[in-house]
Design a protein that fits this description.
7-stranded mixed beta sheet; alpha/beta; binds nicotinamide-adenine-dinucleotide; 39% helix; 22 strands; 6-stranded mixed beta sheet; globular
Amino acid sequence: MKSPSRTLEVAGVEVSGDHWIGGRRVASAERFHDVSPIDESVLGTISRGTPAEADAAVQAAHDAFPTWAATPPAERARLLHRVADLVEERVEQLAIVETTDNGALLRSHLRGVMPRVAHNFRFFADYLVNDLHHPDFETRGHANHVSWDPSGPAVLITPWNAPLMLATWKVAPALAAGCTVVLKPAEWSPLTASLLADITAEAGLPAGVFNVVQGYGEDVGDALTGHPLVSRISFTGSVPTARLIARSAAANLTPCSFELGGKSPMIVFADSDLESAVAHAVEQYDNAGQVCLAGVRLLVEESIRDEFVERFVARAAGLRQGDPRDLTTDIGPNVSREHVERIDGFVQRAIADGARAVIGGGPNTDLGGLYYRPTLFVDAPAGSEILTQEVFGPVLTLQTFATEDEAVAMANGTEFGLAGVLFTGDPDRAERVGARLVAGTLWVNCFFVRDLRAPFGGSRHSGVGREGGTWSFDFYCDVKNTCTNQDRWTVDR
Ligand code: NAD
């Protein structure tokens, strides 16, 4: 016997806690608690998906695929713009729900994240219509034509650190490409995916084109990623989960795009604009350190080390930690008690290994258990865990280097290769050093500037493949070359 559908009320906004499959709400018999990291209050219960529900969602996406794929690009684009309109109308609701659910700053959701969610839809809608080039070329009287054919239902699996932003970065290009979608949001932050389902329905997307399965990866993961009807899997999350998905996808040789973890370096040469470098270094605490791209390893030229640390500590002291709904807060809580314990485990082991915390080093107990003090470690022994493993919390390390070779070796000295941040006043050095860094994205004298036309992804264990602009369409589509002998037509056009 299934329990009735349940709706949560979050900061005055009604959110369904159930799946969205084939254009209707579906409730699971079992439910799990959704907890707010702000104060660990229970917001309500969410359907805990089962393999049967995952299968139903894929089937719904499969059934809806032929019609959606055959829908003219201009019409798909129109519907995606309508989704963007509705997101823009509801920025405030989406922002407060996301903040309550995952603890990230309301200020960021209002000013940056939710507008960017709308932009994700507009960008890929426009790219489909205006920029997806179909190169035509001739070979000995034969015409070649390249087309991007939608591949089928795509399974999209996302983490909790930027739920709706990361989800729509996949949903928008998949739908624009003509794929149908099954979205599996993280169990820590299920709510905005559910609101997005309402928005897609209101925008007029046909039933089954967009589906949401809630629940735990361990329950529904294999059913989604090993499903023979699934044509693509795009996953953002951790390396261990990517390994499980790759194994499951291998059964059907389903192509996967993986956006995974990082331990990115931020290199600061003595010839940099130091004030700007320090400001960007402190920015690495954004989202309470839960940013995959963050340059968490500060690699600073020896000669400026003391001045850098002094300025960094002074600036970090100005960060306000507290309730993420307060628009003056700079650092909110981490996502869950479990995650804070994980962060603290890294910090305590780093101290045991001989690293010294210049600032921070534990939870901010004045604010309750989930607020972790921004921490900066120096003197961590080479090769130690804190210098090589992803913490995903407000924990940075600082090391020094004497030469460019040393900086490059340190920067490239982990299993990751997601991003790099490089500060120098010398353009030749930027080119020389930048060319040697292993990273999917390299920022020079800046941080976090993102253009959706750019390729995005990681090298080494930070990912497989690239998305963004053409790369997204390449991934979600079966790219086809049609070669035609044009001398054999028997019927005039
Ligand atoms: P996670 O791997 O634990 O979970 C991510 C998603 O995978 C969740 O929806 C989860 O339910 C699901 N999942 C878990 N087991 C599964 C399975 N067996 N099959 C299918 N799905 C399964 O990651 P997380 O802790 O939620 O997120 C943090 C990680 O994500 C960090 O490593 C971070 O660096 C990474 N991340 C990367 C990017 C990027 O763009 N490269 C962006 C944000 C976060």
